[in-house]
Amino acid sequence: MAKTQVLALVTLYVIGLCAAAAWRSDPLDASLLASLAFAALVWLETALVRSDISQIAVAFTPVIVILSLLAKMEWTSTARRVAWSAAAGAALFVWPSLNLSAPPDLVKVIRGETTPRAVIRGIHATRRPLDAGLLASLVTPDLAGRRNVSILAFPYDNYISVGQRRRFFAPVLESYAASTEPLERYYVRALDSRRRSGLEIVYGPDRGAVSSVDDVQAITRTPIIFEYLYKHFELASNEEHADAHYLLRPRLQPREVATEPFKFSIPQQSSDSGILRLDAPSACGLVLLEIRIDYAKNPHVFRPGGIELTFSNRDQLVWQGSIKPLALNASFVTYVSPLPPERFHQVFSQDAVQGVQWDKIQYHASSTDMLGSRASLIHIGAQCVDPNKFVEGAVPEQNPSLTTIETTAPTGIDGSTESDGVIETSSASRQGRLPEHND
């Protein structure tokens, strides 16, 4: 947040310079500066969609370009030079994913310590071999005959493809960057085309070499991609791997998927929070959510906030996470899983999966900063995907040292304190299948 505020201050400085320069310049220069400033402001909208590093870097790039163009103009007096240098230095040191290794590498090329050809060749070389445990996880009896089959790492860890000396496939370089519906559909079309000619997927945990973005599960951030993988791919073997990376191969036939709505009561609910208490505990490890989030402030101007979700069993925490809006002021479908990350891969198998028992879903609007728009009204519906796949495991004993969840007195929207029934579902879900995503 602090770094974003610094970049926002630099943006205000640049816009102010453009306005002042346009006022002093001739009409032609004034038109150019005004156009650049307007384009930079419009481009800043991309930073208000998500707080991902890639979005922030792209959003503020035009501002940095304009700042560099104004350098000569601001070098006419000491005070203006100091102000410009301070803005440039601040932008440099708070820039997302700042990496200062490039200048030393360029110096090596200039001094003749290395050649450009060697540097380019080094881009395609593996500086550090893959961990032995990871390599063992990806070895199959027919590996020699599948060297030419493309491989995709999902949701993170693209380095695996390079380390295996396999053909690299990635419709979007980082899968979590496919965070809009058009990008997801593009991703799925590319997957479908490559799957027909041969494709293997290395499915890893959400927290791999890097932390999951915004603490959002991959299946929640990119539900259309996950749905495609779930229907069309399966585990190559049922062996457990300590590194939690597993090989998925195309299915001969798409998976038949069933959904079942939960029966629940609502002991507590307000406009932006609530509790769904199941009539009976569930071991479902893959939950389909239908969500609509409305906002008080315009989510097209301010960064839309999400919701915080908690699964618990007898008020003992089972799982918690976040959901970011995939549609603004409209309904959308996504998935969450209360399974431990190291066991989530089991949903791709044909065997039964030992679930984690839970009996309550609690949700509330995520907090936002001054640039954000907090959810003012939340509607949530939930279904279990393939309920017969999940079997109940041992119910953990209540542990006072673990996080517990305290609830307050019911505060229903309509004045009622409790309501029983089945959640509303889409027409596709009522027919016992996942909603279709047509290209």
Characteristics of this structure?
six-stranded antiparallel beta sheet, 18 strands, 3 domains, alpha+beta, 23% strand, four-stranded mixed beta sheet, 12 helices, Jelly Rolls, 439 residues
Description:
The protein is α+β, with helices and mostly antiparallel strands and 439 residues long. It folds into three domains: 2-94; 132-250, no CATH class; 259-430, Jelly Rolls, CATH 2.60.120. It has twelve helices and 18 strands. A hairpin with a 2-residue loop joins strand 10 and strand 11 (316-323). Helix 1 runs antiparallel to helix 2 (27-43), helix 1 packs antiparallel against helix 4 and helix 2 packs antiparallel against helix 3.
In the CATH classification, which architecture of the largest domain applies? Sandwich
Number of strands: 18
Low-confidence stretches: 208-213, 395-439
- Helix share bin: 25-40%
Helix and strand sequence: HHHHHHHEHHEHHEEEEEEEEEEEEEEEEH
* Structural class designation: alpha+beta
What is the CATH level 1 assignment of the largest domain?
Answer: Mainly Beta
Here the CATH topology of the largest domain equals: Jelly Rolls
Amino- and carboxy-terminal Cα gap: 37 Å
* Shape type: globular
Strand content: 15-25%
Mean pLDDT: 77
Using only CA atoms, what is the Rg? 26 Å
Specify the oligomeric state: single chain
The profile of the biggest β sheet is:
6 strands, antiparallel
